[in-house]
Design goal:
Hypothetical Protein Ychn, Chain: A; alpha/beta; about 35% helix; single chain; globular
Length: about 120
């Protein structure tokens, strides 16, 4: 199975990098079901893994987008070192998001046909 790895490095809100990465992931799942979608959260993107975000009506919600991707078979991992550096390693995560490390990240990079950075 072909796989595409999306690497997110930016916080969930403030810029639209995480939003655009997740939009791409959702569209890939919709239009190319044969492709396995993987997402690795690094740096401030570790905050994308936290549940219970509240956004204004009509505004995108990273948690809902992540749940949709995971619900359709997407895999999401968060850099554990990045989470530790931000003091969020012990906090609960969105269901389906896994804590990870550089070794797993490296394997995903090597296994993926394409790697896209946001």
């Amino acid at each position: 199975m072909k796989s595409i790895l999306l690497v997110i490095n930016d916080a969930p809100y403030g810029t639209e990098k995480a939003y655009n990465a997740l939009r791409l992931a959702m569209t890939l799942q919709k239009e190319h079901q044969e492709i396995e979608v993987k997402i690795f959260l690094m740096a401030d993107a570790a905050f994308c893994a936290l549940p219970n975000s509240t956004t204004p009506a009509g505004y995108y919600n990273i948690e809902r987008m992540m749940k949709s991707i995971i619900g359709k078979g997407g895999k999401v991992k968060m850099c554990g070192t990045c989470a530790q550096a931000r003091g969020i390693f012990e906090l609960p995560l969105i269901e389906g998001v896994e804590k990870s490390n550089m070794s797993e990240y490296t394997n995903w990079v090597v296994e993926s046909e394409k790697v896209i950075n946001f």
